[in-house]
């Protein structure tokens, strides 16, 4: 479809422009004209929106060269289309410096050699422009109808890209995150991939227009049109916007159908998490879903909801999984969700460098937690656990077990957990293991019982003092500052600790054991420790 436009060159062919002379800016005669404006004042920059053809007698500057030059500079800066001057009493001629300025910016200056009625010129051109806008609306409506028909009958989004090219005449470029750029028509003699690079050059920007395609507040794909000839028009921008909306609807529908299909395959994925599939079967499954043929390892992400998932509709859960998929695909992960009673487990296959997996996972988690969908509390509160990174994707059961362990540790620690990554929990992993196979409480009491009893009896702060003193590597000055106590008070507390724990409690081996037991105590009783340390009898009931 031919996009209706009006240029300075077109206007020169209309009525009342039979006796004119173009004295400057011949290379700018292809400038688009959106309106015609009569101006007789020297200060004009605040009155223009761009693309206006200016008609003037020159009374605003008369024979003042500096004022004339300033007037033309304002028009150039405001992106006016050109200047038409009626030669006569007010403007007998155009100074050479003004002509040079206009030539340098390809800004047309046109002289009326005979008197013309400005009112008839504006009426003629404005009538043409209004009819032109009507054509645009009609063309947009026709395009929308064709687009709707495609949405109902097509099998692949490439048909929409073909329709956009057919109507606009421009090169179409489409990019889904994590996939290669698609260019249509694929082999264009006049198009080069370098044309996709848009720098700060204004001329380049006028020949490329881009529209993001978003799902649930996150960018999923990007649609662009690239002109190989004329500038991108308003009509082009309108059909680009309509096309992006249609593509979003089609892709969202495909993702929804895809997610429903994945639900049916939940059992196969559960078997994968149990380590029951050989590497060949896993590779075949990944290939079927378009994942990387040679994945660079992966991990398991467990999302456990703190309350029942029954209050969530199936649509909410499908949207949540689609949101996760969209976010993490941008970070280089193929996601495969598995539904459990109170959790959604995501098998995350890494498609980029292994050394960057954790930083990319953190970015994805932050984007998820900050998304509008989560902020609006569409779902119950949840806790996230990221398991150990596994290079052999058939052994995802190892990552799954460590992700569950991460959730368990976070449950014990409450809000005190400093990370949702298994590999960051360090000492708590050891504590959890000991607690699983031994009576961890008895071991903790062997070291800390005298201090806990003292704090309970005298409402003291010895355990807190001990923890800070160890964290400061025995520095009394730093410990006093962090506890906000004077030196004499701290000395008294340290003497009491020596009497309860032994004078050798700062010796390396014993100190290490005590630090470990403090962490174990927090692990066992972290929820109560948020209101300082619990009474000793509560600890005995664990």
The shape, in one word, is elongated
Task: Tell me the distance between the termini.
Answer: 77 Å
In helices, the fraction of residues equals 40-55%
> What class do helices, strands and sheet pairing give?
alpha+beta
Which sequence of strands runs across the widest sheet?
A: 1-5-4-3-2
Q: How many distinct folded domains? A: 4
Give the mean pLDDT. Answer: 82
Share of residues in strands: 5-15%
**CATH fold label of the largest domain:** Alpha-Beta Plaits
Radius of gyration: 36 Å
DSSP strand count = 13
Low-confidence regions: 197-203, 527-542
- Count of helix runs: 20
User: What is the second-level CATH architecture of the largest domain?
Assistant: 2-Layer Sandwich
CATH class of the largest domain: Alpha Beta
Largest sheet: 5 strands, mixed
Oligomeric state of this protein:
single chain
């Amino acid at each position: 479809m031919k996009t209706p436009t009006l240029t300075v060159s077109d206007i020169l062919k209309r009525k009342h422009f039979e006796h004119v002379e173009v004295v400057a800016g011949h290379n700018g005669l292809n400038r688009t004209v959106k309106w015609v404006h009569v101006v007789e004042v020297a200060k004009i920059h605040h009155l223009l929106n761009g693309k206006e053809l200016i008609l003037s007698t020159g009374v605003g500057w008369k024979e003042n060269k500096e004022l004339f030059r300033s007037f033309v500079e304002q028009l150039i800066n405001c992106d006016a289309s050109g200047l038409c001057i009626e030669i006569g009493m007010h403007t007998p001629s155009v100074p050479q410096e003004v002509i040079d300025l206009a030539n340098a910016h390809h800004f047309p200056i046109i002289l009326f050699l005979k008197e013309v009625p400005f009112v008839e010129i504006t009426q003629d051109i404005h009538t043409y422009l209004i009819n032109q806008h009507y054509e645009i609306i009609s063309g947009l409506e026709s395009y929308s109808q064709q687009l709707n028909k495609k949405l109902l009958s097509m099998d692949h989004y490439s048909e929409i890209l073909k329709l956009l090219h057919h109507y606009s005449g421009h090169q179409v470029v489409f990019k889904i995150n994590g996939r290669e750029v698609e260019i249509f028509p694929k082999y264009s003699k006049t198009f080069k991939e370098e044309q996709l690079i848009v720098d700060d050059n204004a001329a380049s920007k006028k020949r490329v227009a881009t529209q993001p395609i978003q799902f649930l507040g996150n960018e999923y794909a990007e649609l662009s049109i690239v002109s190989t000839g004329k500038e991108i028009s308003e009509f082009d921008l309108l059909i680009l916007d309509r096309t992006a909306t249609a593509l979003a609807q089609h892709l969202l529908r495909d993702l929804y159908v895809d997610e429903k299909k994945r639900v049916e395959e939940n059992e196969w994925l559960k078997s994968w998490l149990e380590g029951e599939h050989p590497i060949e079967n896993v590779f075949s499954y990944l290939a079927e879903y378009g994942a990387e043929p040679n994945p660079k390892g992966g991990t398991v992400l467990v999302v456990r909801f703190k309350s029942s998932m029954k209050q969530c509709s199936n649509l909410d859960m499908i949207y949540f999984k689609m949101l996760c998929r969209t976010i993490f695909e941008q970070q280089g992960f193929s996601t495969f969700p598995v539904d459990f009673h109170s959790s959604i487990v995501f098998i995350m296959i890494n498609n980029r460098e292994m050394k960057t997996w954790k930083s990319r996972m953190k970015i994805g988690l932050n984007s998820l937690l900050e998304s509008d969908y989560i902020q609006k509390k569409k779902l119950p509160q949840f806790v996230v656990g990221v398991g150990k990174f596994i290079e052999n994707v058939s052994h995802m059961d190892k990552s799954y077990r460590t992700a569950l362990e991460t959730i368990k540790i976070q449950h014990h620690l409450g809000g005190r957990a400093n990370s949702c990554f298994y590999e960051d929990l360090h000492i708590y992993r050891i504590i959890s293991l000991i607690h699983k196979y031994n009576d961890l409480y008895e071991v903790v009491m062997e070291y800390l019982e005298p201090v806990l009893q003292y704090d309970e009896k005298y409402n003291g702060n010895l355990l807190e003092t001990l923890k800070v003193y160890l964290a400061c590597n025995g520095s009394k000055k730093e410990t006093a500052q962090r506890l906000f106590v004077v030196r004499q008070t701290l000395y008294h507390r340290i003497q009491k600790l020596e009497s309860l724990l032994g004078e050798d409690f700062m010796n390396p081996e014993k100190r290490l054991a005590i630090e470990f037991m403090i962490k174990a105590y927090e692990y066992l009783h972290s929820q109560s420790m948020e209101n300082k340390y619990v009474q000793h009898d509560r600890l005995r009931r664990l």
